[in-house]
Amino acid sequence: MKPTAIILVAVSYALLGLLSLRLAIPPGYATPVFPSAGIGLAAALLCGRCGLVAVFLGTLLLQILKTTLAGAPLPPMQLLVLLPAGAMLQAWLSARLVHRTPGFPNRLDTVRTIVPFLLLAGPVGCLVNASLSVPVLVVSGTLPASTALDTWWTWWLGDAVGVMVATPIVLALFARPRTDWHGRRAAIVVPMLIANGLVTLAIVQIGKFERERITAAFEREAIFTRNALTERFSSQLLALEAAHALMETGLGVDARHFERFASGWLGQLSGLRAIGWSTRVPAAERAAFEARSVERGNAPGFRIVDRDVHDRLSPAAPADAYFAITYIEPMANNRRALGLNQLSVPAARTAITRAIDSGRPAASAGFALTQSPDQGLGVVVYRRVDAPERTPGDPPLGVVFATLQLDEVIGGIAAVTGDRLEFCLHDATEAAEAAPRWLAGAADCEARFASAVHRMQVDIPFADRSWRLSLAAKPRFAAIHGSWAPMWISIGALVSVGLLGAFLLITSGRARRVEELVASRTAALRHEVAERRTANAALRESEQLLRTMFETSSVGMIYCGLDGRYLKVNRRFLEITRRTEAEVLSMTIPEMTWPEDRVRDAPAVERLMSGRSDTYHTQKRYQRGDGTPVDVEIFSALHRDASGRPQHTVGIVLDNTAARQLLAAQRARAIAEAANRAKTDFLSRMSHELRTPLNALLGFAQLLRSGDGGTLSERQQQRVAGIERAGWHLLDMIDDVLD
What we know:
Layout lengths: L2 H19 L13 H13 L1 H21 L7 H23 L11 H14 L2 H14 L7 H27 L3 H4 L3 H64 L6 H12 L5 E11 L3 H10 L9 E3 L5 E3 L5 E9 L1 H4 L11 H13 L3 E2 L3 E2 L8 E9 L12 E8 H12 L3 E7 L10 E4 L3 H5 L5 E8 L2 E9 L3 H5 L3 H25 L3 H40 L3 E6 L4 E4 L1 H7 L3 H5 L3 H4 L2 H16 L4 E9 L5 E12 L5 E10 L1 H50 L7 H25 L1
Antiparallel strand pairs: 1-4, 1-8, 2-3, 5-7, 6-7, 7-8, 9-10, 9-12, 11-12, 13-14, 13-17, 15-16, 16-17
Helix pairs in contact: 1-2, 1-3, 2-3, 2-4, 2-7, 3-4, 4-5, 4-6, 5-7, 5-17, 6-7, 7-9, 7-17, 9-14, 9-17, 23-24
C-alpha cells in the first residue's frame, strides 16, 4: 500500500468521523453511527498492516481536528496515543476474527459466510475500542464517570452500525478479485448509502428531539427550584411579619412570651436561625436600659456591645442611639448576640436604616452571622415597629428581625436536585453594599456555569432586595432525563443495517434468497397486525370500563366545553340537579348556578376555561329543575391536548345537602345548650337571693314566738304568727317557681 493511499485512507477516516461526531446525542461523547470504524476494518482486511497504520493516523487526525475546531486545547499526549491505539487494536482484532470465518476470503454470498462476518466484524469486534477508550477518558477526566456506561453503549453501537454500513460498501468497491463483485456494486452500494442516509436522518431527528426534551426538563426543574426557593424565602418573611404584629400590639411582651411565640416558627422553617427584637435605646437611657434588662433576667451582666470587623465584641461606643438585641430565640444558639448593637454591623446598619425609612421589610447584604461566623453567609431581615399612639416624626420603638442561614435555607432544595442541578445565589440588588455579592452555593459557580450546556439565571425578590439564582445542569442531568428512544433507535439501526447488509449481500449473489426474506417480512407484518388487533380490543375494553365507571359513579361527573356548556353528565349528576339529560346538555355552568352565586363563581370559571388555571374547586349552590337550591362541592380540572391547548374540562360534583343539614343541627344544638346553661345559672342565683333573706325572717319570727326575745302581748303574738304564716307561704311559692 503506497503512502498516498495510507494518507488518503487516514484523511477519509478523519473527515467521515468528524461528520459523524456531529450526530452525538446528549449526553453522549460518542455517536450512534460511526462509519469510520467500517472503513478501518475494511482497510485492515484489504491492506493488512498498512491499513492499521492508516487507522491510527486517521484517529489521531480526528482528535486534532475535533479539538481545534471546537477552540479547545489539544488533548493530553496519553489521549492522543491511547485513543488511536484502541481504534487500531479493534480493527486488527476484528480482521483476525473475520479471517477465521469459514472460507474467508470469499464472495460473501451465503448465509453461512455472511452472518459470521457481520456478527464478528460488528457487535463482537466493536467491543474493543469502547471497552478501552471509555475508561481512558474517565481516568483522564475528559468524561464524567456518571456517563461512562451510556457512552460505552453508544460507542459500541456506533462502531457496530458503522462497520455494518461502511465495510460492505468498501469491500464492494475495492475487494479483489474484482470479478466476484462485478454487477453487485450498485445493488450493495446504493441501498447501503440510502440506509446510511436514513439512519443519519433518524439520528439527527432523535438527537434534536432529545436536546429539546432535555432542555425542557432542565427548564422545568429550574423553575421548580426557583419556585421552591421563593416559597421558602416567603415563609421566612411570614415569621418576620408575625413578630412585627406581636411587638406592635404594645401588650408588654416579655422574654417568656417571645420565646413561646418564636418556638412555633423556629420548629417549622429550615434555615431560620433566629427571630428577635431590638430595642431602640437613646444614649441617655443606655445605663437604665442595661440595668432593667439584668433585673428582668434577660442575661446576667447584660450590656450593649458592638461587633468589629474581626467578629470581636466590645462595649458599645458612644452614639446617639442604639438598636440593642433584647430578645432573640433560640437563646441557646444565639446567646452571644444578646445585647449586640446592630448598628455596629455595617450590613445590618444599612438594612435597618432602609427598614426605618420605608416602613417595610428590608434585608441586609450577606455577612457572617455573629452567632455562627464559620457557617457561611447569612442575611437578616428587619421590620420597623412603632408605638400604637405614634405621631409623625416619632422614632420607632425598635425593629423585629429574622436571621437566615442561607446554606440551610437552600439545603433542602439542593438535597432534592443535587444529582441533577447545581445552583448558587448572588445578590443582584442595584448599588449593592460593599459586601460579597455571593450568598450561597458554590462560590465559583458563575464562572463554571458559563460553559454549561444547560444553564439559567432567574431573579428572586426578597424583601427589598433582588437575588439572582444561577442554575446549571450537572453532567448526569442528560443521562437522568434522557429517554430510551436513542438506544432503541441505535439498536434498530444496528439490526436494520445488519439485516439490510446481509440481505443485499445475499440477494446480489443468489436471487433465490429473495423469497425467504419476503416470507420473513410477511410474518413480521402478520405479527404486527395481530398485535394491533389485540391492542384495539384492549382499547375498546378499556373504553367500556371507563364508560361503566362514569355512569355508575356515586358522585356527579361532568364534561364541559370551553364555552361552559355541559357536554356529558352521568346519572348521579342528574339526580343531584333533578333535571333530565337533555335539559342539562342545553345549559351552561352559569345557568346551572344559583343566581346569588353566579357573580362570585364567574371569575374562577373564566380562569379555568381560558387556560390560566388548571384546576377549579368551589362550594356553591345549583338551581335544581324544581327551582330549589342544592349545596354542592365541585372539583374540576382542565384537559389539554398534546400541544398544551385547552380542550375541555372534567369534574366531579358532590351533594353537600346532608353535610349542611348536619352542620345546622349542630349549631342549633349548641344554641339550645347555651340557653339551658343560662337558665340554670339564673335559677340558681335567684334561689339563693330569695330564700336566704326569707329564711332569716322566718327564723326571727320563730325566736320572737319562743319567748327568747321577751314576753309578747297577745296582739303581738298574733302579728308574729301572721308574719310566720306569710313567710312560709311565700317560701312555698318560691319553691314551686324555682324547683
